[in-house]
Design brief:
Shape: elongated
Largest sheet: none
Order of helices and strands: HHHHH
Distance between the termini: 35 Å
Number of strands: 0
Structural class: mainly alpha
Helix content: over 70%
Radius of gyration: 16 Å
Length: 86
């Protein structure tokens, strides 16, 4: 996270107050709680498919506003699986 903040600050030419605000925003972003283990628990074989599904999940999670609850994230996972494995 610190590297991302530093790159954002440099790229944007931010002042200290703007850099602090970016840092606070980055620290406030909840964590994506699901991983490849959650996919394997749903019978998705390890490999390239897992990586693609995790990338799609992360995209959907960001589009949904980065929900923090495991229930909301699991619902997103189920939607991604339904869309990609049907």
């Amino acid at each position: 996270p610190e590297v991302v903040l530093a790159l954002s600050v440099v790229a944007r030419g931010c002042r200290q107050g703007e850099a602090d605000a970016l840092g606070n925003q980055l620290r406030a972003t909840p964590e994506l709680l699901l991983s490849g283990r959650d996919l394997m628990a749903r019978n998705v074989a390890p490999g390239g498919t897992t990586g693609a599904l995790l990338a799609a999940l992360r995209d959907q999670w960001i589009e949904a506003g980065c929900p923090a609850s495991i229930e909301d994230q699991t619902a997103l996972l189920e939607a991604v699986l339904a869309a990609h494995l049907s």
